[in-house]
Automatic annotation (TrEMBL):
PANTHER family: L-AMINO ACID N-ACETYLTRANSFERASE (PTHR43617), N-ALPHA-ACETYLTRANSFERASE RIMI (PTHR43617:SF20). GO terms for molecular function: protein-N-terminal-alanine acetyltransferase activity. This is N-acetyltransferase domain-containing protein. It comes from Streptomyces carminius. It comes from the Bacteria. InterPro entries: Acyl_CoA_acyltransferase, GNAT_dom, MshD_Acetyltransferase.
Amino acid sequence: MAYVITDARPEDAETLGPLHLRNWLRTYLNPDAGIDESWIREHRGSSATTEGIAEWREFIEGTSRYPDLRFCRVVRSGPEIVGYLRGHREETVTLGPMYLLDHAQGHGLGGRMMTEFLAWAGPARIRLGVADYNERAIRFYRRHGFEIAGERYLWRGRMPTLPMTREAPSAGGPG
């Protein structure tokens, strides 16, 4: 299977909104934490609505107007979008969301998307939040220089989340 990483296009929003919800339902169900389908739909279901798709479209359109402030890549396998990485820059750079469908994992695509994202971010401090039970993602982020940067917190009062950061490289440091 051939995979290609490209800039997201505005018309990709029609796929990305519902795909984002699908990824949450696949990745974050956790009965022990009280995270069931209805909780996920309450907190992320809007991504698959007309309004959520419009927000994705607006973000993607903003990447061409504000390329230094917004980042969005998709992974394609033929016409299918099988992954995406989105980020934005304010005081710090925020990474997220980032997902690859199961069948697209293990091909180096996550690392390639991360390399593009890190090049875009430049020497900035980068932050993200990751579910504390998503051990695969935590290992992936650590391989790319992220460290846990604080105490676990409950996102939206329920999801156990770890803050992670990748500090800006020091001017005199190795590199």
